[in-house]
Design a protein that fits this description.
This protein has 3 domains: 1-41; 48-108, 2-Layer Sandwich (Beta-lactamase Inhibitory Protein, Chain:B, domain 1); 112-180, Beta-lactamase Inhibitory Protein, Chain:B, domain 1. 33% of the residues lie in helices and 29% in strands. The chain contains 6 helices and 8 strands, in the order ααααββββααββββ. The strands form 2 sheets. Strands 1-2-3-4 form a 4-stranded antiparallel β-sheet. A 4-stranded antiparallel β-sheet has the order 5-6-7-8, with no helix packed on it. Helix 1 runs antiparallel to helix 2. The model has no long low-confidence stretch (mean pLDDT 86). It comes from Trinickia fusca. Residues 109-173 form the Outer membrane protein assembly factor BamE domain. Keywords: Membrane, Signal.
Length: 185
Amino acid sequence: MASLFRLLTVASLGVTLALAGCDDHEGERAMEKLKAFFNAIKPDALLLRGLTPGVTTEAQIREQLGKPETERTFADGSKRFEYPRGPQGLNTYMVDINPQGTLSAVTQVLTAENFAKVHIGMTQDEVRRLLGKPGEVAVYRLKPETVWSWKWQEGGPTGEAFFNVHFDASGVVYTTSRSDVLRGH
């Protein structure tokens, strides 16, 4: 806790010094970067606190959660914002906004139920829409394949694991796998 306090103090001091020599536009950009930094390290419970379906507006969501990693708008006017917690965080939240512009749902998508929905023949875009941004991407040119990996809270003896999606050269899923998170190496 003390190290987090020191980190926040140093970050605040750095921003204050940076803002002292900035014009208004540069100052706004610096503040946005600082907000993004604090959102990245803020515990999930604090980040999501007070979000109420049917009440919380899109503007309030953006103010509280910051800029989404990905934003999709659908034909009916509804939207989905993607908020991965990481790099290599254990949670990725999809925030759904209804056509009226208020919160519909917040869903943590890195779950066994969602992983089970990944099937042979899915495209990279379909997987991305389901699971969000992967924490790691590995390209094996000789095989040829690309593997996307998400760290998640598996709940087994090791607690955390990787869910891996293997794409062939045409960018289509041909298999999935699971791997342990190795510690102490």
